[in-house]
Amino acid sequence: MSVGIIASSVVVSSGVDVLFEPFNNFTAAPWSTNGSPTIIAGRTGTAANMSGSLQIATYTIPVPSRSDTATVGVAFKWTDAQTTTRNIIDLRAGGQVHNRVQVITTTGQLVFTRGVSAAVGTSAAGLVVANTWYYLEFKSFMSDTVGYCLVRLNGVEVINVSGVDTSPTTEILYNELKIGSGTTSVVQQYDDLYLSTGAGATFKGPITIP
User: DSSP labels for 28-53?
Assistant: First the structure.
């Protein structure tokens, strides 16, 4: 069951929990899916399985909960042998990728981007490998001059960048979250996702969502 939590009538400044997703039945509302992603055994319970460039899922953030600051947590792994830079999760604004977390599989690094590929922050090498569940969390603030991003892996901070340009567009609010690689011949799984908005939102750690 997917749970959307709406608790504000204005752009939020304190932390508001918007979505908790266990991926028990994510192929229905509130997700919009392409390419028929499937549900398989997961990190805990069941998980979303995304295969190839067409299998993606998009969540539209309800208007009352949209903000220039978002905090996201999700368990992920990949199970194919492709050595490629792959997209794990996107925050979108105005129909475009605004920020993205990628994995460079050849080096085991995480990358937080502005737009589709401009690196804002990059982790140390050797952090992630195939066929292993990891819990990824990140918090980002969109700004042309004083943006920031914090990225954690299994509860440990691996990227911390501030006072930077994190905004590739003139949009001022995140309005969508997307999972799926968008890359041919890769297979990725997702489990236990949360989304919070507002500057006051905090990391929840590697949680389990029943």
Answer: STTEEEES--EEEE-SSSEEEEEESS
Q: What is the pLDDT of residues 26-63, one digit of tens each?
A: 877 889 999 889 999 999 999 999 987 789 999 999 99
pLDDT digits (tens, 9 = 90+) for 105-127: 999 999 999 999 999 999 999 99
For the chain, what are the domain ranges? 3-197
Both tokens of residue 178?
């997307």
- pTM, two decimals, is 0.92
**CATH number for the domain whose boundaries are 3-197:** 2.60.120.200
